[in-house]
Please model this.
Amino acid sequence: MTDVAVVAREIVLPSPASDGPVAGSVAAGEQPLITEAPGEVLFSTEAIQRRVRALGAAIDTDYAAECPILVGILRGSVAFLADLIRTITVPIEVDWLAISSYTGHSSSGVVRLLKDLDSNIRGRHVLLIEDIVDTGLTINYVMRLLQERQPASLKLCTLLNKSARRIADRPIDYVGFDVPDAFVVGYGLDYEQRYRNLPYIAVLDPALLP
Ligand code: IMP
Model:
């Protein structure tokens, strides 16, 4: 018993301590999982976890007794949804949609459905979980698609809101953080499939872009 507790303490992962931006790398004295951040750290692991807990509490209150289906949009929302559902105490279900809209760091403007839901959402309360809303075109497409299936309600929760480049403006019901007009990576968000495993969110150094 004691041994298990000790092992569990030893594998707690170190992470940036600051809530605010940390230039270039994680805070001095901390041991990052990846040797160097690929740019300025915008949101530390702790700041993200605190915000995720607050969103979970709000969802708990709003959906008590409704057993919503939380629909994650692959692949960027995996980390967020995985953490978020563990802060929610009311009954929920989880389903996934896969969408392709970006190649590299700029939008192709074309949204494709790669994987549909497994659940029938007619008459159900649906909460879409997105990593980031940028132009809004992806979420606009997905919400129109799901609305046609006549859910009892359809709401949107995004970890990040990059409103500067918005084209399709839809109300967002739950927002984790507002972000500036910059390309961000980490905590599920990628640049060409990399950086999803960073436990914090950083602005990708433009020098790393082509
Ligand atoms: P939108 O259609 O322009 O709103 O783009 C939404 C999708 O683009 C997100 O689900 C992300 O996959 C991707 N995306 C937009 N901005 C960023 C970013 O700064 N970093 C990583 N992915 C992004």
About this structure: The first helix runs from residue 2 to 10. The pocket of inosinic acid is lined by residues 76, 101-102, 107, 130-139, 162, 183-185, 189 (CB under 6 Å). Helices lie at 2-10, 45-62, 78-85, 137-147. Confidence is low (pLDDT under 50) at residues 1-26.
